[in-house]
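Hello again,

I reread your note about wanting to compare the complex against the isolated chains. To keep things tidy I'm splitting this into two emails, and this first one only covers the full assembly. Below are the input lines as submitted, including protein chains and any nucleic acid or small-molecule components. They are followed by the predicted structure of everything together. The single-chain runs will come separately.
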Amino acid sequence: QQQVKQSPQSLIVQKGGISIINCAYENTAFDYFPWYQQFPGKGPALLIAIRPDVSEKKEGRFTISFNKSAKQFSLHIMDSQPGDSATYFCAVHSGAGSYQLTFGKGTKLSVIP
Amino acid sequence: GAGVSQTPSNKVTEKGKYVELRCDPISGHTALYWYRQSLGQGPEFLIYFQGTGAADDSGLPNDRFFAVRPEGSVSTLKIQRTERGDSAVYLCASSPLAGGHNEQFFGPGTRLTVL
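Full-complex prediction:
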C-alpha cells in the first residue's frame, strides 16, 4: 500500500514559470513532511520541510503548502530556472518511534529556456 | 566538510554472488540509514542504526540482506546469493541525532547490477 501518492510523474515548465508538485497521504500520524531534490547520479538532498502545525513555509523561491484536513501538501517553485531541472520527491515521517522516511515515486521536472 | 561517501560507486555481479556495499557517514553523525532506490521510484527504507546497533531493520526484504556498523561509524550492507531483482541504487544517509525530524544527508549511492 502506497503511503504517499505524488503527482504528476513528470512536469515541463518554461523558464520563469511556476512548478507545482502535489502529494497526498493517508496516515494522520505523519508529522513531518520534507521535499527532496535529486540530480542524476546524486543522492537526494533536503530542499524544504514543514510540520503540520503551519499551513505554509517559504524559503526563497520554494514554498510548501500544507492542507491538514485534506491530507495533502504541495511544493511550489516560483520563477523556475533550468538549474531546477531534477527529480523531486515528497516524503513523510512519523516521529512516533519511527526513524524512516517514506518517499513518493518522484516527479521529474524539466525547465525549458 | 565531507559528506556521506559510498563505495563502490558501481558494482556489477553475477546472480548468486555475495556483495558488500560500504558507507562512510558524516563525521560525528550517530544515526545511519540504508535505502534502496529502484529505477523510476523513490528511495525505500531498509535499515536504521543508532550507534552500533540496528534500531530498525523492518525494511530489509529478506534474510539475504544484512548490515553492520561495528564501531558506530562506517557501515556495510551485505547481500548474499544476489538475485536480478536486487539490482538498484543503494543509498546511505546519516543524521546528527537519532530519529525525530533530523535532516538525513544522503550519499551518492552504489549502483548494483546483478546479471
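For quick reference: Chain A is about 0% helix and 50% strand.

B.
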